[in-house]
Amino acid sequence: MSTEEFDVIVLGGGPGGSALASFVAMKGHRVLLLEEAKFPRHQIGESLLPATIHGVCAMLGLSQEIAEAGFPRKRGGTFRWGKSQEPWTFAFTKDPTDPYGYAYQVERDRFDEMLLRNAAKKGVDVREQHSATELLKEDGRVVGVRFRDEAGVERTARAKFVGDSSGFRSRVSGLVGERVFSRFFQNVALYGYYEGGKRLPSPNEGNILCAAFRDGWFWYIPLSDTLTSVGAVVSREAAEAMKDGHEAALNKFIEACPIIAEHLAPAQRVTTGKYGEIRVRKDYSYCNTRFWAPGVALVGDAACFIDPVFSSGVHLATYSALLAARSFNTRLRGELDDERVFQEYELRYRREFGNFYQFLMAFYDMNQDTDSYFWSARKIVSTEERDNEAFIRLVAGRSQVDEPAFYEGAEFFDQREGFGRWMEQTLNPEAVRSANPRASQPPRRVAGGFDATDFMAGFTSEIAQLQTQARLGERRGAESPLEHGGLVPSRDGLEWEVA
Ligand code: FAD
C-alpha cells in the first residue's frame, strides 16, 4: 500500500485535535486527522470557559452553531467552598449586558462532534476508527505515523509535522519527554448522571455548582433543564470506598455533602443509555518535561492536565491547539526555524498551565478543614509538593515575564503562603467581611511576599487577548511579545511573526 503525504497529521479528534487541524487547514495546508473512536463518543469535561466559546470557537466559525445547540448558558460558578457555609457565586462578568460574559455547559459527545465535523468542513481529511500506533522517524525527526484503519489494515502516512492531541492516554508524550505528576492534585473522580435534580435560583441556574466536603469536592453541572452531571473528586485513599461498588461509593459521598444531597433529593440516577454508567477517572495532574521534539508537538491533555475544579481542560486544549497551529503554519510558510516557533509554543502553553496550577492551588488552599485528610494534604504550607522539585521546575514562575524561571520547591510554596486567604478575600469578599467586619481589601502581596495582584493580571491577560483576537481580528491593536525577542501572533492570528 502506498504512503500518503500531508503537511500535518493530527492524532486524536477531541477539542484539541479538531481545533489544531482546523486552524492549519484554514491556511490551505493538507491535514489528516486520525481518530480512534467513532463519534459521537463519551468524554468528561462538560463545563466550559468563555475563552473557548468567544475565543477559539468564534475563530473556528462555530459561534452560531453552538448558540443554536440549546446548551445551558453558564454565567459562572457557584461554590460551597472556603470558610463560608453559604454558597457564593463567581460570575464571569459583573456587567449583565456583556455579550461575552458567559460560556456553556455542554454534552461533550455533541460538542466534540461539532468541532470534528467543522474540521472536515474546513478541508481536513478526518478519519474515524483510525488508530495511530507508531511514529515514523528518520534521522531523529518525526516524519509520519503508522496507523490501523477501520478495517484493521496497517498503513503509513508521512507529513512535515505531527500534532499529538490523543489526550491523557497519549503514547507519544513519553517519546517527546517525561510525564511528571503533581503531588498536590492526586485525585480520583467518580461520576454519573441524574434526571430531575434541583437548579440554582435564577439567574444562576446554568452555573456549575462546586461543593467541598470532608473527602473532597463535588461538581454538579446542569446539561439540560432536567439532566445533571454529578461527580465526586476524592483522594486515592477515599477512593478505596469504591471496592464496595461505584454506586455505593457515589451514594456515600453524596450523603456526606449536604448541598449536593439536597439538590439531588428529587432526582433519579440515569441507569440506561449513554449516561447509564457510573464512571471513574483518575485525574492526576501532570506536565510533560517537553512539549515538542523535531517534527512533533504535544497539544491539550497529551502535554499536560490540571485539576478540573475551574473547568480549564477544554480551554487549555483548544488554546494550545491555536498556539501549535501558529507554529506549524509559520514553518509551512517556510519562515523562522523549528527551535524558535516551538519554543514560543512551549513557553506560552506552559505559562498558561502554570498559571492555572497556581490559581487552583490557592483555590484549594481556601478550604482549611484540619480534620480532613483530603484538605490538610492540600494546604500550601504543608503540601507534599514542596519536595516535588521536578514538577515545580515545570510550572513555577512565568506568570509574569520578570519572574524567575525556577524556584526551589519549598521556596516556591513559602512565597505563596496566605495565597488561599488572599483568594478568598478576592473572590468572596462578602463572606470574609461578614466573618470579620474590619477585614480590609486584599493586599497586593500575600504574607510570603508573592505579588498576587500582579499574578492575577498576568493570569487573565492571555485569555483576554484570545477573545480580542476573535472579536476584532485584524483590527485589534499590536501585541507585545511575552519575552524579550519573542514572537507575536500574525494579524489573522494563525501564524507567528517577529515582534
Ligand atoms: P481528549 O478530549 O481526550 O481527546 C483525545 C482524542 O484522542 C479522543 O477522542 C481519543 O479517542 C483519541 N485518541 C486517543 N488515542 C488515539 C490514537 N492512538 N489514535 C487516534 N486517536 C486517539 N475540562 C473542562 O474544560 N471542563 C470540565 O468541567 C472538565 N471536567 C473534567 C473532569 C474530570 C474528572 C477530568 C478527568 C477532566 C475534566 N476536564 C474538564 C478536562 C477535559 O476532559 C480535557 O482536558 C479535554 O477533553 C482535553 O481535550 P483533548 O482534545 O486534549 O483530549
From TrEMBL:
Q: Where is the signal peptide?
A: none
Which is an annotated Pfam family here?
Answer: Trp_halogenase
Its keywords, alphabetically, are:
Monooxygenase, Oxidoreductase
Instruction: List, as start-end ranges, the regions of compositional bias called Basic and acidic residues.
Output: 472-482
| GO molecular function terms attached to this record | monooxygenase activity
Q: PANTHER family annotated for this entry?
A: FAD-BINDING DOMAIN-CONTAINING PROTEIN, FAD-BINDING PROTEIN
Q: What is this protein called?
A: Halogenase
Source species of the chain: Nannocystis sp. MB1016
